[in-house]
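Lab notebook, page 48
Experiment: co-folding of the full assembly
Goal: obtain a model of how the components sit together before planning crosslinking
Operator: M.T.
Materials (sequences as entered):
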Amino acid sequence: MQIHKYDTVIVGAGGAGMRAAIEATKRSRTAVLTKLYPTRSHTGAAQGGMAAALANVEEDNWEWHTFDTVKGGDYLVDQDAAEILAKEAIDSVLDLEKMGLPFNRTPDGTIDQRRFGGHTRNHGEAAVRRSCYAADRTGHMILQTLYQNCVKEGVEFFNEFYVLDLLLTGAPGGRRRSAGVVAYELATGELHIFRAKAVIFASGGNGKFYKVTSNAHTLTGDGQAAAWRRGLPLEDMEFFQFHPTGIWKMGILLTEGARGEGGILRNKDGERFMEKYAPTIKDLAPRDMVSRSIYTEIREGRGCGPDADHVYLDLTHLPPEQLDAKLPDITEFARTYLGIEPYTDPIPIQPTAHYAMGGIPTTVRGEVLADNTEVVEGLYAAGEVACVSVHGANRLGTNSLLDINVFGRRAGIAAAEYASATPDFAELPETPGTFVTETLTRLRDSEGGERVADIRRELQETMDKNAMVFRTEQTLKEALEDIGALRRRYRNVSVQDKGRRFNTDLLEAFELGNLLELAEVLVVSALARKESRGGHYREDYPNRDDVNFMRHTMAYREVDADGNESIRLDYKPVTQTRYQPMERKY
Amino acid sequence: MSSTLTKPGPGPEAAAGTSAAAHKITATFRIRRYDPEVSDKAVWQDFTIEIDPKERVLDALHQIKWDVDGTLTFRRSCAHGICGSDAMRINGRNRLACKTLIKDLSPEKPITVEPIKGMTVLKDLIVDMEPFFQAYRDVMPFLITTGNEPTRERRQSAADRERFDDTTKCILCAACTSSCPVFWNDGQYFGPAAIVNAHRFIFDSRDEGGEQRLEILNDKDGVWRCRTTFNCTDACPRGIEVTKAIQEVKKALITRRF
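Observation: model returned without errors.
Model output:
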């Protein structure tokens, strides 16, 4: 087992991790650990754009952006954080341009902007052009640009180093400090301890517990699960976003920018059904509303296809030149995976599990919270793994590429400044590798006979069926029961690859453990939230209940003296500044 | 198919063949296996599975790994051609496993899957990517500017932006570099991907590092090694005109205009 020492260690090399790394490397000795290669991160799959009130093409300002973010999040957003997000958005976009990002341009040569769901002029009057974009590959350009600048700054990467554990001093409930992380080197199977004064988790989402998802195979909640196992809370995990336009059955993302460019959703009768649900901004309503509307159409028998199980994204009225210039990638996806020509035929779509609004709770400086008020010294998180909370109950499109840049930068600066001001490293636990060694040995040596793929498939099936766009007490209880049974079976899971080199069989087994634990947190949090808000819709409680539920869920893992695990739920107040909750209409 | 969608009909899904009653075929995947912990020799191994031909080669590899042989090892992440993890040689041609549908591979015959060429194989379909990324880093793939930073964005006309659009699409999957016969014979050659990424900056009107990059590529292992076989262009899963980009860099070296 090798031991390394760095001032700052960043876990994950997507947008948030690399944005943090650019800042941290300038200020402290920094290492970035990623289970992939940096340019493989899922930031690269983001398409439509990054919101900022540049006002390059029409009147706009950050206050309108703040309001849209708060309203889009169904008032569960912490308003101080949303204000920072919207204000710093402008410099964030300009910083990326200066780093070389090739944005699309206006005729004047400034950054071009387009419409996106839920972004409006003057508090909801009409859709506004706020999304800064590079065709439909904005995430790809952000990921490439940040990696290029990491190369420029000489950021030190440890590629294919999989962080499996977080090391903390102290015990849950007491004062805690980060001591480092334990990483598994894929190439050799060797364990590495990275001691660090500051650790930043930027390890992305956890959508792989759903079957139809836009998430990469590798989005297995590794950071959330590591924090969870060490007794840190997870905030608002019941809020998961279903993006309205995933390729039917496959879940591959087709950007909301397609509707920003004028695309229309239609049911089997050719009806533009969003006119009924959001008369003002129609197809550009926030994602939670559009996804519910699609499933309402399907449930009421107006779905398309032989099984009436999807609707159409219609781009056929848009000029082919516009599709080629503004939406080249998604039109190619339709051709490659469906054999459909979007110039002439509508594209079959269905909502796809897309984004975790919840995650590891942080302050606006990226500091991880150990409870409602106390921070864990030296521990930070940013991006999808974190919950600041700028997305509340439903994230607006283009606010996640923004989030990773604004809060990635903030976390990078705060972590490196903390590391520089802190003379000593925290003591390592006596046997820092114990959890990882024991877990991997158990998985490798087990002859239980349960297969990873079977358990994962069943987990995804129950989550799709019971904890997706529409939920009830009954479906959630069913999911909880299923997950409990799957967790018991998981104890007997075994792998076929017993080797040390690139043992992805073993790591998939570990990842499944993460997904099972996090799915349970989602379902338990969702059961307790007896209201409907944003992405969490309870058919048995169809209204928002501000009296009882205008508060963040804080879930904790508890283990009793006999080693039995349970989930305890607590709540945290929402920070409200300018905006009083109103009915959410579009 | 009418685009007005006024009549209920079979819908485009019928054309796409993705209806619920998708039929499966029997297909054999002949995969190049290598695990130095087991043997120092690489071998071919056949896996015959039932699979819907509209599925991706990556789906087949997963089916084999998940249901038949967990030791089969390959890289993958996004599964839709944007992360660049799963470039491999499929039926003798470099492609992304997640962008290649089984039906397009004559599945009545065994489909061969092997690691991309010219790079050290570490296990099964996994190769050592470090030399590839080193060549990329060597061309200074970042915007170089002098003088004070502007307060707002740098202006760039839509035409100037369009000039290097093609080479911004690169996902660093190495399909091009590992299809290049010059690279197979001489691993010191920068290779198409590094040149594509140099092109992306050389032809960016905001950049001032063009001369430095051109000098790097004027090296004996630089652009002059290219023999314009177009393998790279054929291999690129993003449709980048790689050979054209290399030719433009050569031309810029001669004329010093870019």
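Interpretation: Chain A touches chain B through 79 residues (CB under 8 Å).
Next step: discuss with group before ordering constructs.
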